[in-house]
Design a protein that fits this description.
Blueprint: E1 9-20, E2 23-32, E3 43-44, E4 47-49, H1 52-61, H2 67-84, H3 96-107, H4 112-119, E5 129-134, E6 146-154, E7 168-174, H5 176-184, H6 192-201, H7 207-216, E8 221-222, E9 225-229, E10 232-236, E11 247-249
Parallel strand pairs: 1-6, 5-8
Antiparallel strand pairs: 1-2, 1-4, 2-3, 2-7, 5-6, 9-10, 10-11
Helix pairs in contact: 1-2, 2-3, 5-6
Length: 256
């Protein structure tokens, strides 16, 4: 399968969960603007491409992590702050006005490393738990190819998420099962990797249970492939990585 991979740009996304006492944990979802080149109009988790600044910061704070892994976690933290206004994985509580100032600085082009230095803050990369990694194959003919690491993280207490009105136009908290039901009713759209990950997430009602599951399954790169099943072409993924649904008929698949 490796010779069928396209070279993809490194990216990171984070599934942010907040537990509820009498219901399944809620996950932050956002609707991408229809003008976006990638996954336009789709419901997604916060995230985006890894940039040079993420690599530069990783070289300083990676600790024992490989630099590409550290850079991806930094990108997930940076993109979440810019897209949703949530400051995840910071080592100290932050007031709303400081979070807003940091978000504004990111939007103006400042790097996360400079922002941390200016505010005397630190981030804890171990608060992002690896969950999955997806990379489309060349045969999928994706318009934009990303090698995307998925993480899970707990929502910071006392913070409120809000749209950036540029890359996303709506955000909401919903359980994985509720988001899938919303899309099945035609009230939202999700691309193939997001659907598969929501199905996997829906198996767990609390963050701690999901975290234990994530730790029990090594992260392997998921590279979907085409296969004829019951006389119909399907897009398929491996069956040993914790996903309850591992194929979908091509007629219903939405890709980015």
């Amino acid at each position: 399968m490796t010779d069928m991979l396209s070279e993809g740009r490194a990216a990171a996304t984070v599934v942010i969960l907040r537990d509820r006492p009498d219901a399944a944990a809620e996950i932050l979802m956002m609707e991408r603007a229809s003008s976006m080149a990638f996954a336009a109009g789709a419901l997604v988790f916060p995230g985006g491409a890894v940039d040079a600044g993420d690599h530069a910061l990783a070289a300083k704070i990676a600790g024992g992590l490989p630099l590409d892994e550290a850079a991806a976690r930094i990108a997930a933290i940076r993109e979440t702050l810019e897209e949703s206004g949530l400051a995840i994985a910071f080592t100290s509580p932050l007031a709303a006005d400081r979070i807003a100032a940091m978000r504004q600085a990111l939007g103006a082009g400042a790097g996360l490393g400079d922002i941390l230095s200016d505010h005397g803050l630190e981030i804890a990369l171990d608060r992002l738990l690896p969950f999955a990694r997806w990379h489309p194959a060349r045969l999928e003919q994706a318009q934009r190819v990303f090698d995307t690491r998925f993480y899970i993280a707990e929502a910071p207490e006392g913070q409120a998420a809000s749209v950036d009105a540029t890359e996303n136009v709506q955000l909401f908290w919903s359980s994985a099962a509720e988001t899938l039901a919303r899309c099945d009713r035609g009230e939202g759209q999700i691309i193939f990797p997001t659907r598969r990950n929501l199905e996997r997430l829906a198996q767990f009602g609390r963050f701690d249970d999901l975290a234990a599951h994530a730790l029990s399954i090594p992260v392997e790169k998921v590279t979907p492939w085409f296969e004829e099943r019951n006389g119909e072409p399907h897009l398929c993924i491996p069956d040993h990585l914790g996903y309850p649904v591992t194929s979908e008929p091509m007629g219903t698949v939405r890709r980015a």
